[in-house]
Amino acid sequence: MSKSLGNVIDPRDVIAGASLQRRQFPHGIPECGADGLRLALCSHNVHGDDIRLDVGTILGYRHFCNKVWNAVKFVLAALGSQFEAHHPPEETVPEQPMERWVLSRLVQAVGECGRHMEALEVHGAVAAVHHFWLRHFCDVYLVGGRPSV
Asked: Where is the Methionyl/Valyl/Leucyl/Isoleucyl-tRNA synthetase anticodon-binding domain (predicted)?
């Protein structure tokens, strides 16, 4: 984007949505939210001053943030308000095969995320979290189905 070309989009318009009369956005910009914008920016592998970011990508991360929110609400509701953990998380040993499977995928994602963060590759860490949450936790563990190997 360039101020001299007049194609700069105000980030506040991306966050809150805007009705713009531009060729690129004949129906305006949909509300993408601050979290969607932040995550979209973090997901890019930047090798210079320019980021090629489109509203569709930001909207996709908005939907991802919404999925995280809904999954957390679902899990908390399933646990119930009286839930108390009997062991610290690091001492918990899952008994069911599906629980062991999703925990193994979580351990892989945490390791991958850590390696990317140590290498200052935030985009790789975002990709690891995104993949685990959507493909393993939500699609398989919460919704049900067969785990992928």
From this structure: 99-142
Query: Across the strands, what pairs with 22?
Result: 25
Residue range 15-66, pLDDT digits in tens: 888 887 667 777 788 888 999 999 999 998 877 777 777 888 999 999 999 9
User: For residue 84, is it within any domain?
Assistant: no
Q: What is the distance between the alpha carbons of residues 127 and 70, in angstroms, rounded to a whole number?
A: 20
In terms of residue numbers, what domain contains 117? 22-79+91-145
CATH number, residue 33: 1.10.730.10
pLDDT score recorded for residue 137: 95
Q: Is position 100 within any domain? A: yes
Residues in the chain: 149
More confident residue, 44 or 6: 44
**68/149 Cα distance (integer angstroms):** 23
The count of domains in the chain is: 1
Q: Is residue 73 part of a domain?
A: yes
